[in-house]
Amino acid sequence: MYVSSIPGRLRIRTEDQAALQRLAESVGKLGGVLAVQLNPRTGSLLVHYEDESKVEAALLKALKKIPRSDTALVPKSTSKASNKAAYMTIAKRGMLSSLGLAMLFALIDREDGHIFTGTMFLGFLGCHLYGYRKRVLA
Question: Which of 56, 97, 98, 136 has the smallest number of CB atoms closer than 10 Å to its CB?
Fold first, then answer.
């Protein structure tokens, strides 16, 4: 089970749909809970609640009642979104640094360095466009 929270909002992710359904029902009955949104497709439960410590304590108590098994765990590091974000970060930083170097080499009149770093920029740009290919071609 993966839990993320900010004051007034709690998100729970798990692959165990039955546990998620039971949790949604029990949390919805708690005082101070404003809204409960269950998304079975993503295995996610979003809870909006009043920003009070007693509501948070009741939510944590309800969470502890749900049995946890190894199959219900969804590790954060293996999600597709986080892998893509890391890939795009590398591509964006590569584009920025190689573009800066290409401009520097152009200013100091070093043609060989300018060509090399310009080629690096085009390579990182290709990686970036490949990552967003569905949006670009849509």
Answer: 136
Instruction: Say if residues 39 and 11 touch (Cβ distance below 8 Å).
Output: no
* C-alpha to C-alpha distance for 64 and 5, rounded to whole angstroms: 15
Cα separation, 49 vs 33, whole angstroms: 4
**Spatial distance between the Cα atoms of 124 and 119, rounded to a whole number of angstroms:** 9
Task: For the beta carbon of residue 77, count every other beta carbon within 10 angstroms.
Answer: 7
pLDDT, tens only, 91-102: 999 999 999 999
CA distance 42 to 116: 44
Whole-angstrom distance, CA of residue 50 vs CA of residue 31: 9
The pTM score is 0.46
**Long-range contact list for 125-128, CB < 8 A, 24+ apart?**
125/91, 125/95, 127/87, 127/90, 127/91, 127/94, 128/88, 128/91, 128/92, 128/95
Quick: pLDDT tens for 20-65. 888 888 888 888 888 899 888 888 888 888 877 677 777 777 777 7
